[in-house]
Amino acid sequence: MGTFVSSNNTLLYGPGILRWLWTEFKQNDWLFPKLFAVESSSKQYEKLASMFGIENVPSKTENENYAIADVANGYNKTFTHTEYGLVLKHSLVAEEDELYGFLSQFPEFLRRASIHTIETQPHAVINALDSTAGPDGDYYLSTSHPSLVGDQSNTPATQIDLGYTSLQAAKTSILNMKSHEGHPIVNNDQMNLVVSPTLWAMVEQLLKGDKQPFSANNTVNVLQGMFTPIVDPYVTDTNGWYIMRKPNKSGAIFFWRVKPSIKEYVDPNNDARAIRERFRFSNGIMDWRQSIVYGSTGTA
Fold first, then answer.
1. Would you state the pLDDT for residue 252?
2. Cα(first)–Cα(last) distance of the chain, in Å?
3. What is the pTM of this model?
4. Confidence of residue 74 (pLDDT cuts 50, 70, 90)
5. HEC assignment per residue over the chain
6. Which residues lie closer than 8 Å to 276 by C-beta, 6 or more apart?
7. Could you tell me which of 144, 165, 162, 127 has the C-alpha nearest to residue 285?
8. pLDDT surpasses 60 at 9
9. How many CB atoms lie within 10 A of CB 104?
10. Sign of the C-alpha dihedral, residues 153, 156, 159, 160?
11. Confidence of residue 16 (pLDDT cuts 50, 70, 90)
12. Calpha distance 34→78 (Å, rounded)
């Protein structure tokens, strides 16, 4: 971290204040690591590749030659890191004449803007699941994901709002999903149910009570505790709901190329004071089965 020194050798913010702000930054209650596996990168870009397996092993008779199977390349995806940076600057005159302590808030302004920027980019992927093509050539939410055993779906044929019946149907669909090779997938691991703040009450009613919601019958709520709710203010579709696996390296991934760094300096040409921050990262989704397992944009 740089030290900010004015022309008269006095500190405006001080390394202690910036250290405190950076500690707050790192300890922020981040949302994207709950959805994306966070990895480090030491290259200009990261290129991930996969390979398809085989459907089954055939039987053979005695002395018959073994069948030969070809193993095909899977899907590839390139993660190209984007650089972000900003300078907050004020003049020496402003520092001399400012009366209300606004200049001392500059580091906090930068911290909050950085958090917002970093959260917004991976969430942009989630907010465009129904309009962004994944490595298989289909939208991440699609009824026609290609596989060796025919098309597979991770969204309703007709989009539907979140409710007891629709969430139950989603769970059934997830349990019936198959790998690209047609193998049943064990989908009993805990998954996240991601919604915008508009649906927070619906999520509470669906997942928290032991009795089936919206029913006068004393029926057990089979959805209780089935998903981990994430009420996410960065989800822009107020009717959308998305079932996502816990972060893993085969699904939604976030790569840090350069973590945020702060530098304070004085412009030698005019004595203007400045705080500079920069960082680089990339993010995306490799395999829909390992990330956006199921979802719907709702009816509106």
1. 95
2. 48
3. 0.86
4. confident
5. CCCCCCCCCCCCCCHHHHHHHHHHHHCCCCCHHHCCEEEECCCCEEEEEEECCCCCCCCCCCCCCCCCCCCCEEEEEEEECEEEEEEEEECHHHHHHCCCCCHHHHHHHHHHHHHHHHHHHHHHHHCCCCCCECCCCCECCCCCECCCCCCECCCCCCCCCCCHHHHHHHHHHHHCCECCCCCECCCCCCEEEEECHHHHHHHHHHHCCCECCCCCCCCECCCCCCEEEEECCCCCCCCCEEEEECCCCCCEEEEEEEEEEEEEEECCCCCCEEEEEEEEEEEEECCHHHCEEEEECCCC
6. 85, 86, 87, 262, 263, 264, 265
7. 127
8. no
9. 13
10. negative
11. low
12. 22
> Phi, psi at residue 131, to the nearest 5°?
-140, 5
Q: Position of tokens 């289909």?
A: 138
pLDDT band at 3 (very low <50, low <70, confident <90, very high): very low
Phi and psi angles of residue 24, each rounded to the nearest 5 degrees, phi first: -60, -40
Scan for tokens 């004071």, then name that residue.
273
Count how many Cα atoms sit within 13 Å of the Cα of residue 38 in the half-sphere of its side chain: 13
Dihedrals phi, psi of 252, to nearest 5 degrees: -85, 130
**Average pLDDT in the chain:** 87
Predicted pLDDT at 145 = 95
Place of tokens 């840090």: 256
Does the pLDDT of residue 84 top 90, yes or no?
yes
**Higher-confidence residue: 178 or 21?**
178
Residue 162 has pLDDT above 50, yes or no: yes
What is the reported pLDDT for 10? Answer: 42
Distance CA 17, CA 260 (A): 16
pLDDT of amino acid 19: 67
Segment 78-106 shows an average pLDDT of: 80
Q: Which two tokens stand for residue 125?
A: 């992927």
Length reported for the chain: 300
